[in-house]
């Protein structure tokens, strides 16, 4: 069923011109979240506007409908009311003690139900066999007295009208066809509160209702703790009666944080900061963590022992480590204890150790970031793929660093698309000339990063560079670890022993190294994102990539491409870039332009948005 937003109206029944602070909060939230729909106040004729919300138009009805609950029942069960809004397919009744967490209104309307309200969930004590028997026994006793028994009459019905979605056509039809039944019902409502308007609409045989399980995803009303248990701790689309005395202790902390009054506290564990001294995954987390405060998120970093330079730059006080294995287990013990205490709102695990699952006894939302699926695709590793698969299935949400990685996660691990968000990396290189540089070749082609693993294609790179070196007299500069014995043998076999240099570079030297290169070649056949791409762009260095993996997604037309695993094509593209000054300048210009799409500020903002969105669903 396809419905346009223009066919949905949000109606806020108001009987006074001045709202309480809690009511103002509810109405403001309605405007903020549901702004793409028509919003109207439903008021007595004596009220021409609502103070503080004069910009919201008013739909007026006779004052008698707003004097008490009996009058309100009459209005909400009248043809007069639904005829007024007949041009709208659906109406959302949003009383000023309702609260909406996110915009799912169109999705719920497209499900085609006649009526959806927060279910009147039975208390847990009535859900056992004995409890069910007692429920009916008490109901029989009340019936014999001529008194309605609320739990039996309304238990697990759908549901409360204070935050409810109504199909206008169906309501109009019942108002016309069952006018006598409505009249009898309204007479009962004068004596018994169980016969309110929403109880009538929740019990129509001709209506299409969702199941209780589905309706709990729409809204909570009574017993929010029990509702939350039944949804697996997932918050619904909205709620009703959040400020009432019996439930405000549950809702107020949730709503205060959702509304931005209190920042969200996100816990980051030790893993990335113990396995790496600098770079890679630890840099990603450090860049994100350093920016979260400006987006309403307070990061809590649970690391006590670490040599990580990025962590130190954040100002996190840690003790240096000697024995890495001992430090790992000490950090693990500390993080486990802190997670079990639950003094935060979400967990963002920095790698895939499943200890967080058993430590998370308060079932806080758990987020992981997947940077690539290299081990799984290349058939390498054992514990990491197994742990990654386990956490992917059991975590609350996954951040992938590219759409390509997201598709791999879905395909290989069978994770549903809705559970994965894509957040691109940013660039960390600052254009500057370092105080000191290692001795660099006069003319060189640049290779940066790991070389040992097969997917990096270093051997293919060397074969492709041999004719370039022979014809152009250039050198090959590799930034990274020293060459292994196998690499040295391969280089000698190609006759390149005097033409390839391996250097280790400090982070502040990378800009100059990229900038002075003739071009940067990234021959890898698979990456999750490819941070060196951004490093080359930020350093005005022409870029050559394999036409594979995530590279076309990330680089677009700001790179020259060679066909995957084709050394001859790599040779040809390298010579083309070296000899064509116009192409070099074009690649540099396009790289600088495309770099604007990727920043750590943007990544942090999108990550914070995901945190808030996840928290709005799970408490």
Furnish the topology, listing elements before pairings.
Elements: E1 8-13, H1 21-33, E2 38-44, E3 58-61, H2 69-76, H3 79-84, E4 90-94, E5 98-100, H4 105-109, E6 115-119, H5 129-144, H6 150-154, E7 158-167, H7 168-177, H8 179-191, H9 197-201, H10 212-215, E8 219-220, H11 224-230, E9 238-240, H12 248-258, E10 264-268, H13 271-275, H14 280-289, E11 297-301, H15 309-313, H16 324-341, E12 346-349, H17 355-359, E13 366-370, H18 374-378, H19 383-394, E14 397-400, H20 403-413, E15 420-422, E16 444-448, H21 458-472, E17 475-479, H22 485-493, E18 500-503, H23 510-515, E19 519-522, H24 531-538, E20 543-546, H25 551-555, E21 560-562, H26 567-579, H27 581-595, H28 600-617
Parallel strand pairs: 1-2, 1-4, 2-3, 8-9, 10-11, 10-12, 12-13, 13-14, 14-15, 16-17, 16-19, 17-18, 19-20, 20-21
Antiparallel strand pairs: 4-7, 5-9, 6-7
Helix pairs in contact: 21-26, 24-27
Q: Could you describe the 3D structure shown?
A:
This protein has 619 residues and is α/β, with parallel strands linked by helices. The chain has 4 domains: 5-119 and 157-258, Spore Coat Polysaccharide Biosynthesis Protein SpsA, Chain A (Alpha-Beta Complex), CATH 3.90.550.10; 122-155, no CATH class; 264-422, Rossmann fold (3-Layer(aba) Sandwich); 444-595, Glycogen Phosphorylase B (Rossmann fold). It has a 6-stranded mixed beta sheet with strand order 3-2-1-4-7-6. The protein has a 6-stranded parallel beta sheet with strand order 11-10-12-13-14-15, with helices on both faces. A 6-stranded parallel beta sheet has the order 18-17-16-19-20-21, with helices on both faces. The longest helix is centred in the middle third of the chain and has 18 residues, at 324-341. It is elongated. The mean pLDDT is 91.
